[in-house]
């Protein structure tokens, strides 16, 4: 008989960068602010007498559907219980700490936290790869197609390369421990679907070749721990040329960050959050100050200096 955990547990799932510039739909990384704060959603779960008792709280809860049954965490619980062929009652609460439509893997954070919490609550009926597959399957129901570049790093941590093989969805690749990732969310939301619609239906062969070259060279440089080569290859030829002008202030910010000494700048996911990389903390701090003053345009915007979150989703 499948066991059920007693008591209450809370799960944290970190924010993530999809694409990481160079790896459109194929590369993702989890984020951890260096000040020790947790940048991501939390889900708390316990046993209920019957049904799914859902609630939501947190800074961005007001942006979620008012009817709990329309929320993805409620739907995650129904999805998970259906997979188990169970009708157990659960109480599940989402603490929504990531802005919707931010380019920080907001929906992935909620989905991963919920399914991880459910798996822990029922004492791990699914192993890691199976649970990752369920996360991708559910995320695909939301977005219309399966993309692991936010789900995988959010769940597993670090930087993940999407494989989509028959037996393995992704694999971790080495990261650069001395890199600081400055991320800035301006406070506005952009629809992923609308940002995808900006991309051309077809690309020139030369662009396809460049995409393959940059991504493969970046992965090679990561394994060789050749930071100079990795920065040189960290270029987005598929999405940024078509999305940059649709993100208010992005082009100016990229130029200003270069002038400050940042090594490279790109769009996190489909935006509007940007990321900028340096190996110098003082430069990262200057970049954060500039972004706070010039890039953040709406209440709720923020900037963080991050390292990659190597732990991924966990109970807290």
TL;DR of this structure?
It is an enzyme of class 2 (transferase). One of its GO terms (cellular component) is cytoplasm. The chain is of the alpha+beta class and 316 residues long.
Strand and helix layout:
Elements (H helix, E strand, L loop, with lengths): L8 E6 L1 E3 L8 E7 L6 E9 L3 E6 L14 H13 L4 E7 L10 H16 L6 H16 L7 H6 L2 E4 L7 E4 L6 E6 L6 H6 L7 H20 L2 H7 L6 H4 L6 H11 L3 E4 L6 E5 L2 H14 L7 E7 L5 E2 L1
Parallel strand pairs: 5-6
Antiparallel strand pairs: 1-4, 1-13, 2-3, 3-7, 3-12, 4-6, 7-8, 9-11, 9-12, 10-11
Helix pairs in contact: 1-2, 2-3, 6-7, 9-10
Keywords:
GHMP_kinase_C_sf; alpha+beta; eight-stranded antiparallel beta sheet; five-stranded mixed beta sheet; 2 domains; Ribosomal Protein S5, domain 2; Alpha-Beta Plaits; 10 helices; globular; 316 residues; EC 2.7.1.39; 13 strands
